[in-house]
Amino acid sequence: MLIENVQVSKRAKEQLIKLKAWTGVQNWNVLCRWALCVSLGEKSVPPFERIVADSSVQMSWKVFAGPHQDLYIALVRERCRRDGLGTDDETVVTQFKLHLHRGIAYLAADRRLREPGGLLNLVVRVSVSP
Known about the structure:
Layout (H helix, E strand, L loop, with lengths): L4 E3 L2 H14 L4 H13 L17 E3 H5 L3 H14 L6 H21 L8 H11 L2
Helix pairs in contact: 1-5, 2-5, 4-5
């Protein structure tokens, strides 16, 4: 398996705690899936940063990805290809972490998620974007 465990930084954990309170979504893996997809949907490449995965928010890849494990890896690998990066395992894992953390930060900064139905509104905004 390419990714065994998913663990986030302390900063990301604090952002996820806020997201849980605002959205009512109680599972880390669900919020992290949303975060990954939000970042993958952005046109820019996430800036490189050294991410220290030092929080207690940790889950197996199987829990993170659920029945769609191959799909999430394929999405990140395809994004690497489109961004002109390598598609080797190390690059894919690094980009996964960068996208996950960027997506968590994006969601935590989105004030519209503090409203009832905020996640649903996010889906509507994304699906109608050009």
